[in-house]
Amino acid sequence: MIRHFFKKSTGTLLLAAVLLLPTNLEAQKTYEPTPGNLKARQDFANSKFGVFIHWGIYSMFAQGEWFLETSGLKRDEYAKAASGFYPSRFDARAWVKAIKQSGAKYICFTTRHHDGFSMFNTKQSSYNIIDATPFKRDIVKELADACHAEGIKIHFYYSHLDWTRDDYPIGGGSGHRSGRTGKGNWASYSKFMNAQLTELLTNYGEVGAIWFDGWWDHRGDSIPFDWHLEEQYKLIHSLQPSCLIGNNHHVDPFDGEDFQLFERDLPGENKAGYSGQAVDKHLPLETCETMNGSWGYNATDQKFKTPKELIHYLVKAAGKGANLLLNVGPQPNGEIPMQSLMGLKAMGEWTSKYGATIYGTKAGDIPASAWGVTTRNGNKLYVHILSLDTTSLTLPLTAKVKKAICFADKSKVQFKQTKQGVTLSFTAKPQEIDYVVELTTK
Question: How far apart are alpha carbons 136 and 85 in whole angstroms?
Answer without folding.
Answer: 10
